[in-house]
Amino acid sequence: MATLNYIKRLANLQNRRFDKELNESLISKSFSAPDIPDNVKYMVESMLPINQKYNSRTIDAAIRVQKHLQDGFNLHFNRAYRTQGSVRTGTNIKVHSDFDLLTIIDKYFYPEVSNGNTYTDSDPKDDIKELRRQATKILKGIYDDVDDTHDKCVSIFNKSLNRKVDVVFGFWYNSQKYEQTKVERNDEYYRGIYLYKFPNGPRELDYPFAHIHQVNSKGDTTTDGSRRGIRLLKTLRADSDTELKSLKSFHLTTIVHAIENNNLAYSRGNELSIAKAISEELNKLIQDPTYRKGIKSPNGTETPLEKDEIVPEIKSLKADLDTLIEDSAREILNSQVIKKAILTY
Questions:
Q1: 239 vs 9, 46, 233, CA distance in Å?
Q2: Could you tell me which residues come within 8 angstroms of residue 88 by beta carbon, excluding any fewer than 6 positions away?
Q3: Which residues of 201-224 are buried (b: 16+ CB within 10 A; e: fewer)?
Q4: What is the pLDDT at residue 342?
Q5: What letter would DSSP give residue 304?
Q6: pTM of the predicted model, to two decimals?
Q7: Residue 82's closest CA among 160, 161, 231, 187?
Q8: Could you give phi then psi for residue 18, rounded to 5 degrees?
Q9: Which stretches of 259-345 are DSSP H helices?
Q10: What pLDDT score does 166 carry?
Q11: pLDDT at 313
């Protein structure tokens, strides 16, 4: 059984939820309550959402970047902009979460099924490289902190808002389902993005809008329960004594998304039940490789848990979660005062 340093973990959590620019903390009032043990406090606080006030500042940073790019580009094609990231799904655990600004060539698209019309006015590879080249030049002329070493994005840090934005470049990919339903649905659920890996490819297909929709839909259906579960796993990963390099946020989101809705439904005071449901799912992933490898991502297009290299990290994460569950359950089951405190947390 793992041993968790709750004093250290609560300090980490507090740091992640402090906005230096506003000099404000997002920690709840109950955080300083003397009648709530540290283990229970850590479990409940880990599941709480970041207030929209702080997430809005992250979105504002991306909007500013978009405006700078739009004002500075000199290209023969239009651009479309979209955003993605845990802020869009309410599963971020930090006030200063990274945020993606998708910058998409909006003159043509790649079809799943060819309609016989082939675009020949320019070379898409030259277009995407020029898009990134100009974006990098524009951003370096405005921001002091620009990182253009990544193969998929250019990152900037907005010092006035204390926010990081990743500018990601790509092409539209129109699936057959998107073409068939775009008028009826009036959304981009079935529309994909071909993300370009610089300097010379390849293109990688992603469906970010379906992902955002599915995670938010499950979050709403479970009264924020699935989002709370994702935040809990992200917090445990962030505070792990062992660095978990293979388990990404996408994996953690996929794990929680695979759990039945009725096991994640949130109501005041049932945080322990959600934690236990996640532990049971982790155990299933560890014990049943066939089940693990067949689990689909929220948008249904990938199987992100199929690599065996993530299993040791799942075990490590589960050990910490089980310790938290055992420590918290002992406190909750033996005290009516604590039970009441959780209900009003």
A1: 6, 11, 10
A2: 212, 216
A3: eebebbbbbbbbbbbbebbeebeb
A4: 87
A5: T
A6: 0.95
A7: 187
A8: -110, 125
A9: 271-287, 289-294, 311-333, 336-343
A10: 98
A11: 98
